């Protein structure tokens, strides 16, 4: 399944910070990318890899969709249950548009959860997996259950506008904590996230970096899962955080901790109103 459905006429839902009309319906990720390229013809970040742009219709991340769909509906784990009763914020089993509205506060846990944290929670509570089970412990790489599920579920929100809720005080607090972390310097090299993404024109070797305040560049930057051509694997938002922290020489961040959730909350809020490319293809 490389297409979710034939696209209906798009319905404008919101206007992004940079002026892109985000859609209230699913869109093919390549179509989302092409519209961003047309909207920002001078963006060195968006246009930096002609090869990746050409490969986007055949994105290897799409190969994970069928396996992810099977894993979602398959009865698995000690409880022999599927994930159809998992609530990602829009009701049990509702996936359309759910990914772009995370992180969010969940009443059943009393905490703000990012996508991966919520998925693992459901796999434990509904299916009975434990931290020692490979289905939960293996988080990274195209061969992991987590990555296959993440790619399938995220794909159902492709083209939807990033819209993480900020109605609950804990959601606002988490977003604000993420902003502090984004600009907080630390580690052996005294780096922060803003050192790379706080202004335009930054580069690491041959890679042009996205500017956080350019929402059309930023929506591509935070559109994970994505196939990383240089690693030949599909990666998640959480994996990208791990890589950034390592590059900044900061202390490592454990999975399912508030630091991940806070940074993702701030990331996604900075892309608010812009359409998500799910899955994406990156260098």
The CATH superfamily is known as Cytochrome c-like domain
Report the CATH C-level class. Mainly Alpha
Mean pLDDT: 91
Q: Tell me roughly what share of residues is in helical segments.
A: 25-40%
Biggest sheet architecture: 3 strands, mixed
Assigned CATH architecture: Orthogonal Bundle
CATH topology category name = Cytochrome Bc1 Complex, Chain D, domain 2
Strand elements, count: 9
Quaternary arrangement of the chains shown?
single chain
Which secondary-structure class do the elements indicate?
alpha+beta
Which stretches are poorly predicted, pLDDT < 50 over at least 5 residues?
A: 1-22
Enzyme class: transferase
Subunit structure: Heterodimer of SoxA and SoxX.
Keywords: Electron transport, Heme, Iron, Metal-binding, Periplasm, Signal, Transferase, Transport
Subcellular location: Periplasm
Structure description:
- By secondary structure, the chain is α+β, with helices and mostly antiparallel strands.
- The protein has one domain (27-282): Cytochrome Bc1 Complex, Chain D, domain 2.
- It is built from eleven helices and nine strands.
- The chain has helices spanning 29-39, 50-55, 65-73, 115-125, 134-137, 145-155, 169-183, 194-197, 215-221, 237-247, 258-270, and strands spanning 12-15, 21-23, 104-106, 111-113, 203-204, 207-208, 226-228, 233-235, 280-282.
- The protein has a three-stranded mixed β-sheet with strand order 8-7-9. A two-stranded antiparallel sheet has the order 1-2. Strands 3-4 form a two-stranded antiparallel sheet.
- A hairpin with a 5-residue loop joins β1 (12-15) and β2 (21-23).
- The protein is globular, with a radius of gyration of 18 Å.
- Residues 1-22 have low confidence and may be disordered.
């Amino acid at each position: 399944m490389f297409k979710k459905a034939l696209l209906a006429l798009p319905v404008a839902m919101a206007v992004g910070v940079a002026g892109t009309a985000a859609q209230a319906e699913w869109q093919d990720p390549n179509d989302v990318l092409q519209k961003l390229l047309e909207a920002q013809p001078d963006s060195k970040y968006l246009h930096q890899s002609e090869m990746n742009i050409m490969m986007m219709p055949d994105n290897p991340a799409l190969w994970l969709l069928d396996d992810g769909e099977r894993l979602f509906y398959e009865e698995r784990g000690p409880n022999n249950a599927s994930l159809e009763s998992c609530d990602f914020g829009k009701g049990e089993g509702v996936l359309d548009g759910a990914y772009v509205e995370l992180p969010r506060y969940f009443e059943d846990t009393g905490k703000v959860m990012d996508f991966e944290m919520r998925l693992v929670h459901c796999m434990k509570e509904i299916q009975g997996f434990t931290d020692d089970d490979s289905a939960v412990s293996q988080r990274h790489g195209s061969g992991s259950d987590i990555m296959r599920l993440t790619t399938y579920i995220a794909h159902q929100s492709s083209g939807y506008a990033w819209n993480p809720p900020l109605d609950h005080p804990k959601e606002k607090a988490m977003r604000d904590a993420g902003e502090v972390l984004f600009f907080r310097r630390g580690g052996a090299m005294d780096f922060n996230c803003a050192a790379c993404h706080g202004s335009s024109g930054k580069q690491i070797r041959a890679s042009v970096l996205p500017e956080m305040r350019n929402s059309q560049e930023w929506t591509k930057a935070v559109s994970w899962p994505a196939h990383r051509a240089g690693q030949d694997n599909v990666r998640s938002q959480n994996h990208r955080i791990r890589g950034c922290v390592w590059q900044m020489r900061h202390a490592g961040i454990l999975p399912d901790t508030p630091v991940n959730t806070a940074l993702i909350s701030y990331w996604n809020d900075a892309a608010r109103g812009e359409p998500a490319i799910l899955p994406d293809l990156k260098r």
